Amino acid sequence: MPGGEGTRCRSTAFSIRQRGFALIPGTRIFLLSQFVDRTGSGVWLTSCILYFALVDHLRLQQIGLMLAVAGLAAVLGSPLAGFLADIRFLPLRSLLVCCHLLRLVALSLVLAGQDLVVLIPAVAVTYLGDGAAKTLEMLIIANATDERASIYQAWSRSAVNAGYALGAGISAIGSAVGTGHAYRTLIGVNALSFLIAAGLVLHTPDRFGDGRVDSPSAPAASSAASAAPSPWRDRDYLLFTLMDIAMNMDDSVLKVGLPLWLLGHTAAPHALVPAFLMINTVLIVISQVGISAKMAGAHRSARAVPIYGATMFLCCAIIAACDRTLAWMASAGLLIAATLVTVAELIRSASSWNLAVALAPPEARASYIGVASMAPSIQKSIGPSFMTGVVLAFGAAGWVALGLALACLSVAQRQICLHRLNRRSF
């Protein structure tokens, strides 16, 4: 690329980043609310199992049952939030505040009781509110930032990952203390994060959710609500969402596949496992905005999907090649694989968000995004079992097959998305 053109591209990307963040009043407050929320979530994710086992004295089977029910509730939270947004049950910002407060109450019940009859519904409600809150955040971003939504979403992911990292650090301190009081304090920190996040959301400007996405005038809205298409009867959109479940497999590759493959099939040191998440967090924080700027626009996002597939195939092939190799070769290969799966995640997160919004009809965008938001939650529920029961069970061949499947699926999803975008029949 000629120097002048490259300079213009970098300048344009920087300009987009500035317009998408610095010049929208209230974005910093909303980003801070997400950062605080995910800090609490990071504490929860890294301490809840220890809390249930050591403080509530639950058996592993009981903990597994409780988290399985909670995972299902998280899946249901996304379409529920989209439905409530589309029928204008409350303004988007008010719905998000309600989700934070609902989680605060539910987590207070977790702290107050040790009976499984109380804990299962309380944890399920917490996860239901979490799934709904994430969908509402997507809708608020689309509502408040218009054509700059993809850039703002990138800033959002950077803030979210920084929050998760801080939360994990706080949890590590509490876990080092290791007392019952320390674990209760960690759960209390998570509950407090919901209260602070709700307060921050209330202080955002009106454009952050006092309405719905692309909301028409009142009479038109009433007419549109009755005639709005349903995502559950839209076969193309459901197919896109179904494919997106599989396209979220990078999450299970990073968090389940890589660590277990290192432990069972390589001579790489176990101390390398934390480096996988460290690489992931650092790259997302520093790279998400730049990659999202380069993929702004629905057509560009659709054309980027096969790049995700190719990156995942290369990642899986390298993981397979690390089987029974020398320790230093396995270590280097797995670190490269962790980098590649993170690059794939960066591409997928930006393209998936852009396409979920662009493929939805404006008059029912909230409901459609609610359905699309189910994909990550469903993958988190079934992905780890698929990884351990299928991919790892077949060894190196399982990894190659997974890479090939994702590569082929990415090409198919590109074609479906471009066909719908070009048709524009909604």
From TrEMBL:
Compartment list: Cell membrane
Membrane-traversing stretches: 65-85, 105-128, 182-202, 271-293, 305-321, 390-412
UniProt superkingdom: Bacteria
GO MF annotation list: transmembrane transporter activity
Entry keyword Cell membrane: yes
Keyword terms, alphabetized: Cell membrane, Membrane, Transmembrane, Transmembrane helix, Transport
Topology versus the membrane: Multi-pass membrane protein
GO cellular component: plasma membrane
Name of the protein described by the UniProt record: MFS transporter
Taxonomic lineage from the root: Bacteria, Bacillati, Actinomycetota, Actinomycetes, Streptosporangiales
